[in-house]
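Morning!

This is the sequence you dropped in the shared folder:
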Amino acid sequence: MGFPNPVTKQGAITLSLWQGSWIAGLLVGAVVWGMIVWAVIFHRKRGDKLPPQVRYNMPIEILYTVVPFVLIAVLFYYTAKDENTIDDIPAHPQVTVNVVGFQWSWQFNYPAYNVTTDGYMWNPQLTEAQNENEMPLLEIPKGETIEFNLTSPDVIHAFWVPEFLFKRDVVPGHPNHFSITATQTGTFIGHCSELCGLYHSRMLFTLKIVTPAQFQTWVSHEQAIQKTSSGSTQ
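The structure's back. Tokens below.
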């Protein structure tokens, strides 16, 4: 129903809520359409005699009030329950990523591993393919709890991966957080979904979801590269 396939447990919850809302809406619509058709067929004008009126009919008035209230209460309950689940931050996440959104790129820091993937600003002098090769990389393991801590040094951005079915604002002076658990591997494109300036549309990053073993290999590789780079600058 318009959503991409979710790649996280939290995204699957969002999709379920979205589809459930559609089903409820279609059922209500079917009842309303059925009543309209019934009224058109069985209460069409057959003469000048006024048909029986139901004005001030208390049972019907109560039905008009109670049924919408119940529908709204049920939708509110499932929405609040799913929001609480999606917003839940585990006490001990298996991987923590500190995300910095800035004009106009991203930086990802893994404090437990002392690894940072630097953001690259969009270069209008390069082709789109060349710029895409320079996009910052966010790599995470499948099946493990990942906590993201979001900050910005300049303006409001928004961290968005369409396949997460989720976005969260990155606000200066107001750190934001969320947690996900990936359910499948693959490569995806992340975006900024808050208009943040000239190259907002180019504020992209590459998300790679890999197996835990591949993630550990990547971390070791990045640690070696950054250690070598640090040593060469001293």
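Headline: The helical segments are 9-42, 58-87, 128-133, 212-233.

More detail when I'm at my desk.
O.
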